[in-house]
Write a sequence for this structure.
């Protein structure tokens, strides 16, 4: 039963980063194509975009491109992870499952220290990759913040420009209103001057000369325009 753990078909798990061949040498396997958790190829995006980095890097490529690469083992920690999730051990409690895996590893001649070292290297690769993504995120946010400030400044400039135009229109209307009121004052003075002059044209003792003449003059002027 233990040999089954190390003869799992490729349908159940992907290839290890590097596997030892039957002659003791190592044969490197090519990095798998980037896929997402649904098994489909991630959508391509513009170069430099953070979502392209986050979706296009498979775990296999992360391990292969890490600054410190995992050790080359015939059976690494990923194989153990496959064993843990194997249907052959399904339903077993933690301790019997641990004993079964340890027996299988011992039968395969796997060194526990090397497996743990492999786990540490892979965790470090994942952490380093996450830090790189966080750095890209910070740079992306900084660039977008700078762009937002630029747009805000342009918006404020345009707002100020249009507010100046609005204020100029209001000022022009106010000037025209002042001009109209000034003309109305001059018109009043001119009307009074004409009425005063007209009174001297009315014979003394007539009804028009009795103080009602300005009112009659105004009424006559209004009636003449109708």
């Amino acid at each position: 039963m233990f040999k089954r753990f190390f003869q799992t078909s490729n349908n159940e798990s992907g290839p290890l980063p590097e596997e030892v061949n039957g002659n003791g040498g190592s044969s490197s396997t090519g990095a798998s194509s980037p896929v997402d958790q649904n098994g489909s190829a991630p959508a391509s995006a513009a170069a430099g975009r953070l979502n392209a980095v986050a979706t296009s890097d498979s775990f296999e490529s992360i391990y292969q491109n890490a600054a410190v690469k995992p050790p080359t083992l015939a059976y690494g920690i990923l194989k153990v992870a496959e064993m843990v999730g194997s249907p052959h051990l399904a339903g077993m409690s933690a301790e019997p499952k641990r004993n079964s895996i340890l027996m299988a590893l011992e039968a395969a001649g796997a060194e526990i220290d090397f497996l743990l070292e492999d786990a540490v290297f892979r965790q470090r690769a994942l952490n380093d990759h996450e830090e790189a993504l966080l750095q890209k995120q910070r740079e992306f946010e900084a660039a977008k913040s700078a762009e937002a400030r630029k747009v805000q400044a342009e918006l404020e400039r345009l707002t100020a420009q249009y507010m100046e135009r609005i204020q100029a229109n209001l000022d022009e209307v106010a000037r025209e209103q002042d001009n109209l009121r000034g003309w109305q004052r001059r018109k009043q003075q001119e009307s009074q001057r004409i009425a005063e002059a007209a009174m001297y044209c009315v014979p003394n003792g007539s009804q028009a000369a009795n103080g009602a003449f300005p009112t009659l003059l105004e009424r006559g002027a209004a009636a003449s325009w109708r």
Q: What stands out?
A: The two ends are 118 Å apart (CA to CA). The beta strands are 18-20, 26-28. The chain has two domains: 2-149, 195-224. Helices lie at 50-56, 59-64, 77-84, 94-108, 112-199, 213-224.
